[in-house]
Target: DUF2336 domain-containing protein
Amino acid sequence: MAASLTSQDVARLLSEPSAETRAELADKLAAELSGSELTTAEAAVAKDIVRILARDIEAKVRASVAEGLRHSRNLPHDVALKLAEDIDQIAMPLLADSLVLTDDDLAAIVRQGSAAKQEAIAGRANLSETVSDALITHAEAPAVARLMANDSAAIAESSMTRAVTRFAGSDVVKEAMVLRPSLPPAIAERLVTLVSREWQAQLVNRHALSPAAAADIVLASREQAILHLSMGASDEGLHDMVAQMHRNRRLTPTLMLRALCSGDIAFFEAAMAAVGDVPLANAQLLIHDPSRHGLVALYRKAALPERLLGTVQAAVEVLDETGFDGNPRDLERFRARVISRVLTTVEALDAADADYLIDKLGDVLMPAGDAAAAG
Model:
């Protein structure tokens, strides 16, 4: 061994009244026990001494043991559990890192422990569904938010459902859920109604929402931009939004079609440029080519579904012929005109897309006062 445990060390440990001395010996012992050079007999002696140190009246000594052995697989389970149940200052290193603690140990500490202990456990690598569920059930928002931010944590869908219900009013938890690498579709759909428009956009970019939910979010976020465009303003932020959606594979043909049929030609142009891998200016010229040959060529270059091509062509024609009139509720009337013409002129419209547009037509035709009351 590099620094063998000697009989003098043991005698000093048992007789020295100074806490500092015992803490120094605890550090030395932890280093030895964490290594692989102890014989079986030496390891047994070391573990016995660790048990003595773990009962030391001085927190400084117990803290030295906990810190020094936080990563050691040689730490006796009974000692690990005793230190994990100690005061926060001592328990935290083991709760954060010790692999000696079992899922049952951790779940019990979550149920009975302090908020600080719960947060330490929430940040552990590779948390099991059992421990994650205990945190969601018993811990408060800061610990659950840390759990949701822990990409390596396994979280069952039933636990996710409980989290959405229990923390519906906690932005910090909901936002951490949105930022997870993946969410079950049902959870993402529930979060749509509980987060701000900014975070709804994150949901569209990161997770698999239903076509209707994704289209609703995008169209709602684009309303002001469409109005500004009708008055000759630039569409700042559209390029970045579409580029991010394309990178995350959220720029679906259904979403593009529904945006187009709802009057958002700028979004459709930017999306076609992205999926067709051509400059925006080129895409605009191709899309609005009166012969429609350019639109067909770009559509096929983008490898979009052939069954939707006729609908896209008809919708572009409607948009090219329909404009804003500048009167109150202009956007609503514009969308109503576009949707009505698409529904009446496109025979091959998919049933799901038709149902979606009929719903949107009902929304935009609702009188302003009724819409406010419904909201």
